[in-house]
Amino acid sequence: MNSIxxxxxxxxxxxxxxxxxxxxxxxxxxxxxxxxxxxxGNFSLKEMKRAIEYAHKKQVKVYVTVNIFARNEDLxxxxxYLSELDEIGADAIIVSDPGIxxxxxxCVPKLPLHLSxxxxxxxxxxxxxxxxxxxxxxxxxxxxSLKEIKEIKEKTHLEMExxxxxxxxxxxxxxxxxxxYMTGRDSNRGDCAQPCRWEYHLVESKRPGQYFMVDEDExxxxxxxxxxxxxxxxxxxxxxVGITTFKIEGRMKSIYYLATVIRIYREAIxxxxxxxxxxxxxxxxxxxLKKTTHRDFTTGFYIDDPQAKKESQELLSLQNYQFVGKVxxxxxxxxxxIEVKNKLSLEEEVEIIGRNMKTFSAxxxxxxxxxxxxxxxxxxxxxxxxxxxHPLEKHDLLRKRISIETGCEV
Length: 410
What we know:
The protein has ten helices and 21 strands. It folds into two domains: 5-172 and 227-309, Aldolase class I (TIM Barrel); 321-401, Beta Barrel (Elongation Factor Tu (Ef-tu), domain 3). 39% of the residues are buried. The chain is an alpha/beta fold. α1 (13-21) packs parallel to α2 (45-57), α3 packs across α4 and α9 (255-274) packs antiparallel against α10 (283-289). The chain has an eight-stranded parallel beta barrel, surrounded by six helices.
C-alpha cells in the first residue's frame, strides 16, 4: 500500500522544485539529448547533477529519460552519456530502444531500467520478454485496459507504471510520422511539432481551392485532437490491478498546471492509503483539475467506456483562473517576495495554492518593489513584495479568477 508512487514531470529545475514541493515521490526529466521532449527546458549534465542532489535531499527519486528510437549516429556517444548519468546518481533510466538497452546493460549494469510506454507493450508475453532483458519496471502502452494490466502483472515480477493524467498522442503508442513528414522534425527522436493540434480543412479532389470545415466550433476545427487523460476517479481500481506508479504527463506544461495536478493526485493517494475501505473520490479534485487549461477529460482505454474513445472537438477547455505569481522567498510571517507571472494589481483578490488542498483568498493591499518602493501593480517577470495575512512557503502559487469569455478578472 505504501509503495504507491506519484511520478511527476520536471522540464527544468524550477518545475522539479515545484513538483517536489507539491508532493511528487519521484520525478522524470531529460538531458539535452536522447529524450523524447527535445523542446522542454531539459538539463545539462551539470544542471542534472544539481537537480538529483536537490531531489535526494528531499527523499525524492529521479528517473532520466533516454527513450528515443536511436539511429546509428545516436549510438556514438550513448555509452559515455549513460556512464555520466550513473555517476551523478540517477535512480533509473527510462528506455524504449533495444539497442540502447543493450548498451546500458554493458556499461551501467547496476542502473535500473524502466521501459517507456513508447515501447508499446500490450501483452504479458512481451512483458516477460522485457523482464528477461533486465527491465525492472514497465510503463505499459496506454492502449491497455485495466483488465489486461492485471493479467500482465500476475504473470510477471515487473513494477507496473501507467500514465494517469495529461495530454494523449493521437497515434498508436506515440508512433507518429506526421511531424517528420510535414516539418522534418522527428517525433520519435524527441522533436515533435505536434501537427495533430493544427487546424485542418477537407478538400474534394475535383474542387481545388474549396475548403470545407469539418465539425467546427467557434475556435476552429481540430479533428485530430484527443481528449486529456484523467484517472482521478479510479485510484482504487488502479491499485487493485497492481499498478504501483501513477505517472503525470507534462514536461512542457506550466508550473501552475503541474502544481495543481500534482497536489490533487497527492491528496487522493494519501486518502486512499489512509483508509482504502472508506475512500471516495472528492468532487473538489475534479473541480480543481478543471482550473487548468485542458481538453475534455477521458479515461482513455483503461475503462470500458465507449465515450472515452471519442476525439475531442474542442481545442482547449479554457481555464477560468489565471496564474499570477510564485513565492520565491519568505521574508517574514506575513511578507513574501513573489515572481510575477501575469499582471497583479493593488486591491485584487487572489487565491493562494499551498502544498495541500486547502486554499484561501486574500486581497493584495500592499505591493513593494525589491527596493521597498510602493507600487500600484507588478508586471510579468518582475519580483515584488506583498503582505498576506497567512503563513506562506517558498513555491506556493497565487492565482486569480478571470472571465473565460474576455480573459479579464472577475
